[in-house]
Amino acid sequence: MKKISSDIAFTPPIKAIQTEKGSREHYARMEEAGGWHTRITPELEEFVAGLDMFYMGTANTDGQPYIQYRGGPTGFLRVLDDATLGFADFGGNRQYISIGNLSENPKAFLFLMDYANRRRIKVWGTARVVEDDPELLAKLADPSYRARVERAICFSVEAWDVNCKQHIHQRVRVDEAD
After folding, report:
1. Quick check: 48 and 123 in contact, CB under 8 A?
2. Domain boundaries, given as residue ranges, for the chain
3. Looking at the DSSP assignment, which residues form a beta bridge with residue 79?
4. pTM, to two decimals
5. Which of 86, 5, 81, 88 is nearest to 41 (CA)?
6. Is the pLDDT of residue 178 over 80?
7. 3-state secondary structure 124-136
8. Could you say which architecture CATH assigns to the domain 37-164?
């Protein structure tokens, strides 16, 4: 059976539920048209450049999920090439759950939110922690941002999709409010 990019999320049990609930036909048409994106496009690059936060999901080998808020200066999540995103990982609460999970399970998920414009993008892939690459760390650092870069996280994109804006509550940053 041909592998489709949305298969990363639409497993056989999910497709069965979609059939039962009446949405499978819609998603089958999307898959016939090529499915989700598998490379970083100018649209995704522009979206990423405007973010000052996102959520990253990881799971340990037992499957226990973990969602981590990641924040920084606008544009701190960067496109490294047409298949890789990267960001400086700043010092935080020192629990190291995300990097611990990635040490045993590289599968990861990015949930990119633009609350002001009610837009979200879901990104599936794998992530790796990079602590010993001064050139990469310098490339991802923002000297004007007062946080210590502890490491970089590089995210290999396997699939991404723009999600509908339904039910997204519009929020704006304090510095953008009138």
Report:
1. no
2. 1-35, 37-164
3. 85
4. 0.92
5. 81
6. no
7. EEEEEEECCCHHH
8. Roll (2.30)
